[in-house]
Design a protein that fits this description.
Helix content: 25-40%
Radius of gyration: 23 Å
Number of strands: 18
Strand order of the largest sheet: 3-4-2-5-6-1-9
Strand content: 15-25%
CATH class of the largest domain: Alpha Beta
Distance between the termini: 65 Å
Shape: globular
Oligomer: single chain
Number of helices: 17
């Protein structure tokens, strides 16, 4: 087979280090080109069949990548309609949510399994994780820019795929610190131990950890928390768990509902925050990236922006304005666009509202702070004063999720 791909020196070094391994974990920092490293390793392994499992938003990207750089393969989109007979020298591409609905994959043999963003199988009890762990690949390639997001316990399922068959009990005993939680009557994780030993052991099973700063000197990062004035509606709801805004009634009758409405009242229902976004956009002619959570936020933001707009969400992916117009505004919903996009033409990123998922938060930052970025980058965190957003920001900076359970505990502690 003819190889037409050209790798960067650090990518070649990673492949050289793992040449003898048929199960590898490429835990490369976001922006270091793990797609190229993973696909090249798959080509080197040269299995008759190949299965790529990725996020739904990345299916087209992977298909285009293989068709461009590895035209000798037959690339098959496998999430729509399965085929009866899989041809040799083929690559099946499917998303995590669909893979477990293809039981015929359990019969596949003599194949390489490539998991893009392998942290997706961190919960070994989910249907998609169970299914993947039951597959019988000859070779495995794990790719992740944030393999654990600071949560080392979540590496256990990935250890199984690398061939390190350590029991979960022993893994926790050696690397995780737990304390008994009287309130919930269960053990909770409070820290980690022997992390250097953990990484050394993983290297013995083909894992490579590589940070951006070990390879490139990227431009300076400027993080700017912006204090946004609160509203009477937010304060009333925070105190009484009920408020009427226009024709809408918000009732926080459960902790999950209260958390949701507090986030929305601090965001899209805060006219002060909307005005700040408008003023910020008017203050520059540069490209701006805005991350948001909810459909209502997208609708309101889109209606108030009088510039070329690109959109990435569950319904639409259109980056034409971003590519063609220097003064464009790109609206990205976290779940759809925090991972995988290359947006280094922009150097200004606005967090209209925060995600409660640490991994998405960390991934989102790397959309503009990556290889190819030549200017200092600016992150604007728009945080409503005396609101839930400040606590979320603190937790995310610790690389932890701001869960419903954490919110409920903090409510009870007040």
């Amino acid at each position: 087979m003819i190889n037409i791909i050209k790798l960067l020196p650090h990518q070649e070094r990673v492949l050289d280090e793992t040449y003898e391994f048929d199960r590898v974990g490429y835990f490369l920092d976001m922006g270091l080109g793990k797609t190229f490293v993973g696909s090249e390793k798959m080509w080197e392994l040269n299995a008759p069949y190949n299965l790529v499992v990725c996020q739904k938003s990345q299916i087209d990207y992977w298909i285009e990548h293989f068709k461009k750089y590895y035209p000798e393969y037959k690339v098959i989109r496998y999430d729509k309609q399965p085929i009866e007979k899989i041809p040799s020298e083929s690559i099946l591409v499917i998303n995590y949510e669909s893979a477990w609905r293809r039981p015929q994959l359990k019969e596949l043999r003599n194949f390489t399994l490539l998991l893009d963003e392998s942290s997706k199988i961190k919960n070994e009890n989910s249907k998609q994780s169970k299914f993947i762990l039951e597959l019988k690949p000859d070779c495995v390639i794990l790719l992740s820019g944030t393999p654990i997001a600071g949560k080392y316990e979540e590496l256990w399922s990935q250890c199984q795929l690398l061939g390190w068959n350590i029991s979960k009990e022993l893994f926790y005993k050696q690397f995780v610190i737990q304390e008994w939680d009287d309130r919930n009557q269960r053990y909770k994780i409070v820290g980690y131990k022997n992390i250097d030993r953990l990484k050394r052991k993983l290297r013995q099973y083909g894992a490579v950890f590589l940070k951006t700063e070990e390879v490139f000197d990227l431009p300076k990062v400027n993080e700017i928390p912006v204090k946004i004035k609160s509203t009477k509606q937010y304060q009333e709801f925070a105190k009484h768990s009920i408020v009427k805004v226009g024709n809408e009634l918000f009732v926080g009758d459960t902790p999950a509902a209260k958390k949701l409405y507090l986030r929305q009242l601090a965001g899209v229902y805060n006219s002060n925050k909307l005005q700040y976004v408008k003023d910020l956009i008017d203050s520059t002619s540069d490209r701006i990236i805005i991350f948001y959570n909810f459909k209502k936020e997208y609708e309101v933001l889109k209606s108030m922006i009088d510039r070329p707009i690109s959109t990435v969400n569950g319904d639409l992916k259109d980056l034409s304005a971003y590519e063609e117009h220097e003064n464009s505004v790109t609206l990205i919903q976290y779940q759809a666009g925090a991972m995988g996009l290359n947006l280094q033409k922009a150097n200004k990123l606005v967090y209209f509202s925060l995600t409660d998922k640490s991994e998405l938060f960390e991934q989102s930052k790397k959309r503009i702070h990556r290889i190819g970025q030549e200017r200092p980058v600016f992150y604007y965190y728009l945080l409503t004063v005396r609101s839930i957003e400040w606590r979320m920001f603190e937790v995310l900076k610790e690389r932890k999720d701001y869960t419903d359970a954490l919110f409920e505990k903090e409510e009870l502690d007040v």
